[in-house]
Write a structure and sequence with these properties.
This protein is mainly alpha-helical. It is about 55% helix and about 5% strand. A hairpin with a 2-residue loop joins strand 6 and strand 7. Helix 1 crosses helix 3, helix 13 packs across helix 16 and helix 17 packs across helix 21. The termini are far apart.
Length: about 550
């Protein structure tokens, strides 16, 4: 395939992309990709906005029609009886055969009538042929398949014969184990084939292949009768390796495991998933896990990672996506040994969040010390404990998002590594009400500094970033003064929840204040705090009967 056609095909599939993504998927040189992109932009096939590129679907439709015209003009009239694949055609039922004859008839009519006004020709065929109606979109698909694969391409289920890329050496070795009277499962045959090749140093590490591509390829190469004969009569070979003693690369660096996982996605042609997973790995997993080995990524490390993501303002749904990707990467290189499995205590919470819950007296003492020792940070701590807003959300506040008339703050962004990130979930974009105490402090601050409405509300006289200042200076200092376990930013929200629960505040109010999408996610995090309220037996009739007496 020419480089230009490859770029167009890749751009059509990605739809929205940047230069790096296009280079990764197309595997072309950056200079060549840049030159082709420049030409495509001039032709308006690709649209560019800053550093983002978009595929122009309207322009592509014109290209498709032009390409289709050329293809149609090249093929000769189809005679079904003379076509390769006629034997397969006869195996179908009468209804299927008639549908294929209709496709052939329409292709022949287009060949005779020309490619101008194709839609009108399709409608004319539908009115006069006597066959069931063929939609223009269906004809476009059939025409494309015929141009690629010939007559076989328009037969039903032909696409099932098209497989993802499987290395020939693995497939050849797979057949030696699968087509024997040992009657191994497909997965077991794939595994044994890869272990044999690994022992011969022909591959580096077994991959987690799905069974479907192997089955499809075998059925394409052999008939059903041949496969059945092989699996009943061919003697099984003795494995050239010891299948019980499996050594998996637990000392492999996570960076290399991620490279293998992403390469595997590319081999399976899962380009959309490749883009999503590569972005999530690069932005969230790479900084935290790249220098660790697979053996070092334990449940405790993952719990610490989850805690840090919460401290930076990420929601539960997003963090769970990143952890799922982490497990998939590890499973790719270590399919049998899962270092994240809890072995000692099956009831231990693998991804539990450590909560530093303080007593009412400690919270009052914390606020008192903070007001005296860290006055600039006092409103941040107070707001988080009183409203349930996270520290990153409070640090992202600008003056235009504070309404002093009804004492509310509008939370739409959170501060992450000195840049604003918009909350994606609708439930996290919310208004929270603050009390008169904090209102007076903020009004004095506004009148004293006379800032622009777009200025950040909270700025600190420190070389550290606002998040680092709150976490590493303020909360660490307060923890030392109170002689307690070190506080994290998310602990302020946890204590807000605990105080509300103890005061019988409705759970739905707490959930909405924290920005959780629904109750299941909220209860999943705070079920232990909720369970602590269940400390006795309750009879709802007592109050009713006592009031009547």
């Amino acid at each position: 395939m020419k480089s230009r056609d490859l770029i167009i095909k890749t751009a059509r599939r990605l739809d929205k992309f940047n230069l790096d993504e296009l280079i990764v998927v197309s595997e072309l040189d950056e200079k060549e990709v840049t030159e082709i992109l420049s030409d495509l932009i001039k032709q308006q096939i690709i649209l560019k906005n800053n550093n983002t590129y978009f595929f122009n679907t309207k322009k592509s439709a014109e290209i498709t029609n032009n390409d289709g015209d050329e293809t149609i003009s090249e093929f000769k009239p189809i005679v079904i009886e003379e076509e390769e694949g006629y034997g397969d055609f006869l195996k179908f039922g009468e209804e299927t055969q008639n549908r294929v004859r209709a496709y052939v008839g329409l292709l022949n009519l287009i060949h005779q009538a020309g490619t101008k006004n194709i839609n009108k020709v399709v409608e004319l065929f539908n009115e006069t042929s006597g066959y069931p109606r063929i939609a223009p979109s269906t004809f476009t698909r059939i025409r494309r398949k015929y141009s690629q694969y010939g007559f076989r391409g328009i037969l039903p289920k032909f696409s099932k014969h098209i497989t993802v890329a499987i290395p020939d050496e693995i497939y050849t070795c797979f057949k030696k184990y699968y087509l024997t009277n040992e009657k191994l499962s497909v997965q077991e045959a794939i595994y044994r084939a890869q272990k044999e090749l690994q022992s011969e140093q022909k591959i580096e590490q077994p991959y987690a292949y799905t069974s479907t591509p192997f089955v499809r390829k075998v059925r394409t190469e052999f008939t059903k009768e041949q496969i059945e004969y092989f699996r009943n009569n061919i003697e099984a070979q003795k494995p050239k390796f010891e299948p019980i003693k499996v050594k998996e690369p637990l000392d492999m660096k996570f960076e290399k495991a991620a490279y293998i996982y992403l390469k595997h996605l590319k081999m399976e042609n899962k380009l959309e998933r490749l883009m999503h997973d590569k972005t999530n790995y690069k932005n969230h997993l790479k900084p935290y896990f790249d220098n660790l080995s697979i053996r070092e990524i334990t449940t405790k490390v993952v719990a610490q990672f989850k805690q840090s993501m919460f401290d930076n303002g990420f929601q539960l749904v997003s963090v769970n996506i990143y952890i799922t990707l982490l497990k998939l990467i590890i499973k790719t290189v270590c399919p049998l040994t899962n270092s994240l499995v809890v072995r000692n205590n099956s009831k231990q919470k693998v991804y539990s969040v450590d909560m530093n819950i303080l007593s009412d007296e400690k919270i009052a003492e914390l606020l008192n010390i903070c007001k005296k020792k860290y006055p600039a940070a006092y409103p941040v701590i107070y707001l988080s404990l009183s409203t349930g807003a996270s520290v990153p959300e409070i640090l992202a506040l600008t003056w235009e998002r504070i309404n002093f008339e009804d004492n509310t703050i509008f939370l739409k962004y959170f501060l992450y590594e000195q840049r604003l990130v918009m909350n994606r979930c609708g439930s996290t974009i919310r208004k929270l009400k603050f009390d008169d105490n904090i209102s007076d402090i903020l009004k004095k601050k506004f009148e004293g500094t006379k800032p622009e409405l777009t200025d950040f509300v909270f700025k600190f006289d420190s070389p550290k970033s606002p998040q680092q200042y709150i976490e590493n200076v303020v909360l660490r200092g307060l923890s030392a003064h109170l002689v307690i376990v070190r506080l994290h930013p998310s602990d302020l929200q946890h204590n807000f929840v605990n105080m509300c629960l103890k005061q019988n505040v409705p759970i739905t109010f707490i959930q909405k204040a924290l920005g959780y999408y629904g109750l299941p996610n909220f209860i999943r995090i705070y079920k232990d705090l909720i369970a602590n309220l269940d400390n006795g037996n309750y009879n709802p009739l007592n109050k009713i009967l006592e009031s009547k007496e």
